[in-house]
Amino acid sequence: MALNTCSEGISFAREMEEAAAAFYEELAKLFPEDAEKFQGYAKVNNKNVANVQRTYFGVITDGIEGCYAFNLEPDQYVVDVTLPDGVAKGDAIAKAIAAEETIARFYADAGEQGKGLTADVARAFTIIARKRGERVEELKAIVA
User: Fold this and answer.
1) What is the pLDDT of the chain when averaged over all its residues?
2) Domain-embedded: residue 1
3) CATH of the domain at 79
4) Facing residues of 72 across strands?
5) Which of 3, 55, 130, 139 is the most exposed place for a label (fewest CB within 10 A)?
6) What's the sign of the alpha-carbon dihedral 122, 136, 92, 30?
7) Res. 114 pLDDT band, cuts 50 70 90
8) Total structural domains in the chain?
9) 35-59 and 6-30 are packed helices; what angle lies between their axes, rounded to 10 degrees?
């Protein structure tokens, strides 16, 4: 089922962010040498949800919500954040990078599609997409 309204897009983003935050909390427990970084990522994920929701509630009206701001298929943004027992750090980081790239792609696509009807929300999505790209580079540095 496609995501069409701004509310649907934000709900999907929240689900991805919460799953990714839980994933980073798990990584913090598995790899204590990088726990601070992973816990920081989890906190930022939760802040992303709050920021987007605050932006949405600050500008949305019933008239805009009735419109279709997106045409996104959630199946194209599936994030696998499950870790097998005894996962190697490199494999866990590779999974984190893949998840970040998928989440960033969702935010970039949603930001692009939503800019005509929900400019403030689209801008928040675009900023988060850019920051996700920066996070990918940080994750790559962990295993370099």
Assistant:
1) 88
2) no
3) 1.20.1260
4) 3
5) 130
6) negative
7) confident
8) 1
9) 170
For 1, 45, 96, 100, 142, the CA distances from 135, given in Å and listed in that order, are 29, 11, 10, 8, 11
Specify the residue for token string 């990078």.
97
What's the pTM? 0.80
- At how many degrees (to 10) do helices 89-114 and 6-30 cross? 160
- Per the domain annotation, does 130 fall within a domain? yes
Give the whole-angstrom CA distance, residue 24 versus residue 55.
25
Say if residues 115 and 122 touch (Cβ distance below 8 Å): yes
67: left (phi over 0), alpha (psi -120 to 50) or beta: beta
Q: How far apart are CA 81 and CA 20, in angstroms?
A: 7
Integer CA distances (angstroms), 113 to 73, 75, 95, 99, in order: 12, 17, 27, 21
Residue 121's nearest CA partner among 1, 3, 13 is 13
Q: Cβ distance 74 to 127 under 8 Å?
A: no
Structural domain of 84:
6-143
Model confidence at 41: pLDDT above 70: yes
Highest mean pLDDT among 32-41, 44-53, 69-78, 105-114: 32-41
